[in-house]
Amino acid sequence: MPKHDIASMEHPIFSLSTRPDRRVLDYAHNGVEVTVTPSVKGRATIFDADILIFCISQLVAALNAGRPTSRRLTLTAHDLLTATGRETSGDGYRRLRDAFERLAGTRITTNIVTGDTETTSGFGLIEAWEIVRRTRAGRMVSVSVTLSDWLYQAVLSRSVLTLSRDYFSLRKPLERRLYELARKHCGRQPEWRVSVETLCKKSGSASPRRVFRAMLREIIRADTLPDYRLEEEPGDIIRVTPRAAVLDAPEAPPLAPETLDEARALAPGADIYALEAEWRGYWARSGRPHLRSADRAFLGWLRARGRGKGRGRAQT
């Protein structure tokens, strides 16, 4: 399941602009101060954050499975693109490289309070990245990402939240940001009320208040946010309520590496992690029944899927 670090959901670290954003962002709220300094390539965007979400998700899955982890991850480029709803064309790979450059170039300076001591530290969103290409076609095969220690420690301390997979289908930057804030502040509570002024500030929007309010009303009318509904109330207040019980329910146990190898043989050429995510989604929609063996359930579902019998039945 997609995971995001809580600090990035709480504070407006990523740009909502679809054009290169080279403005320095100074943000302060409830004693927390954050300065985001872009590179000449511009500040990392909320769509660039998909890469970090994918990395965080892989790390959490490894922790849950008891596997060793490190700040340096080697990922299959195709898996990263498909899992985050991106094109796997040549343009998709080029955009991925641009995103790495913005993530590495964006610098964060923030104060961290520990007891009576306040520490100010600076770091990049990622420390390093590397692309491996095939020699003939020149196509990207895998990518290596070294996360900042700040982000890695957030994962180790489980300062993360689960996102809806539909998050990646949101194409408007403000929609994504509103979902993050709803997920962080409302969660599974009955409601969260926030003023338009505070919401504008926390979103990181550079639009004037009246323009932000108009965009907000358009999103409210469209009502496309996963898991949450927004309503406008008198007094310039926005009320956020969950559509149903959302997220953070028990997840199906991790699958063994041998199971994934067998799945690759059953579905050659397919993105096995996307298939695993589809199966986990089916299991969740089925009411999360107890699984005697998650590995057998997944392989049984995959065989039934291959025979064209719909999504199959989870073996509980």
Give an account of the 3D structure.
- Mean pLDDT is 84; it is low at 309-316.
- By secondary structure, this protein is of the alpha+beta class.
- Helix content is 39%, strand content 22%.
- The chain has helices at residues 6-10, 49-64, 77-83, 90-105, 149-156, 173-185, 196-203, 209-222, 257-266, 272-285, 294-306; strands at 3-5, 25-29, 32-37, 72-76, 107-114, 117-124, 126-133, 140-147, 160-162, 192-195, 228-233, 237-242.
Describe, in short, the structure shown:
Helices cover 39% and strands 22% of the residues.
Q: Secondary-structure blueprint of this entry?
A:
Blueprint: E1 3-5, H1 6-10, E2 25-29, E3 32-37, H2 49-64, E4 72-76, H3 77-83, H4 90-105, E5 107-114, E6 117-124, E7 126-133, E8 140-147, H5 149-156, E9 160-162, H6 173-185, E10 192-195, H7 196-203, H8 209-222, E11 228-233, E12 237-242, H9 257-266, H10 272-285, H11 294-306
Helix pairs in contact: 9-11
Quickly give the structural class. Answer: alpha+beta
Radius of gyration: 20 Å
- Low-pLDDT sequence parts: 309-316
Give the strand order, joined by hyphens, for the main sheet. Answer: 2-3-5-6
Arithmetic mean pLDDT: 84
Oligomeric state:
single chain
Topology as a string of helices (H) and strands (E):
EHEEHEHHEEEEHEHEHHEEHHH
Major β-sheet, in short? 4 strands, antiparallel
How would the global form be characterised?
Answer: globular
Strand content: 15-25%
Q: Number of helical segments?
A: 11
DSSP helix fraction:
25-40%
Question: How far apart are the termini?
Answer: 20 Å
For the secondary structure, the number of strands is 12
